[in-house]
């Protein structure tokens, strides 16, 4: 294999978006069980922010990016299911934001016909997150009432659609009329503009007087109390992110006082415990994209050199849908 090299987005030290730098990196030859992928697009995610800031400690410098999609350029020994030219996607694999990325073949899934590489990169991490939340953390069924915060965001839009597809009722929150309209268009039966209410939990209970069965909360600090107060007795708060900041420690007795409710802090990695589970989640998500039953909204595309702005826009909650870095 001739030497492959190209730009890569490097975290030079722990900190804000100013620690990002684009450097030329040479891709090593693939080892046993590995492939080299020419990356087409990379997803912009909050897990990248947590890693960059040191909430999830990482040894610096390192190449940022946890998901992407591209075309196989070289195949290492022992790889039997992939050949050069195959279109693949992945998630939960640091080092994605580079022209050429070495990936373990066992972490890759095929991109089906009818799904372009940018869309595949946009849906892998967030799509499988919405999938595990609605199928495993709290399995949604007919009549389930689910509170979905940040419903116009990347995961939020997918959650709204998946809850509705499984027969659930969505109480969506979003900031501003435009984002509320997006949630309503995607099928949310009840939409609350959190900027227009003084008591978010009270607004939720106006449309769900008995409380919601589950609150899917990726916002964190700003919505945690309202999520907890919106649950029915024995309901569940699935806190899967912290876009507004980490939730401070709290008294567990609050769970009793709220009605013997449950709080869980899940992450995607624990719901991809095997190759079979990866294939199931990714397969269902990508198949739904391919047949048109799951809409994936790309809210912004940024060159690698503009990555700091992409992450600032993400953290500032200035966008809708998924943000991508394109190579």
What would you note in describing this structure?
By secondary structure, the protein is an alpha/beta fold. The chain contains 9 helices and 16 strands. The two termini are 21 Å apart. The strands form 3 sheets. Strands 3, 5, 6, 7, 8, 15 and 16 form a 7-stranded mixed β-sheet that branches. Strands 11-10-9-12-13-14 form a 6-stranded parallel β-sheet, with helices on both faces. A 3-stranded antiparallel β-sheet has the order 2-1-4, with no helix packed on it. Helix 2 crosses helix 3 and helix 2 (117-137) crosses helix 8.
Can you tell me the residue ranges where pLDDT is under 50 for at least 5 consecutive residues?
none
Determine the mean pLDDT: 95
Portion of residues in beta strands equals: 25-35%
Largest sheet: 7 strands, mixed
What proportion of the residues is helical, as a percent range?
Answer: 25-40%
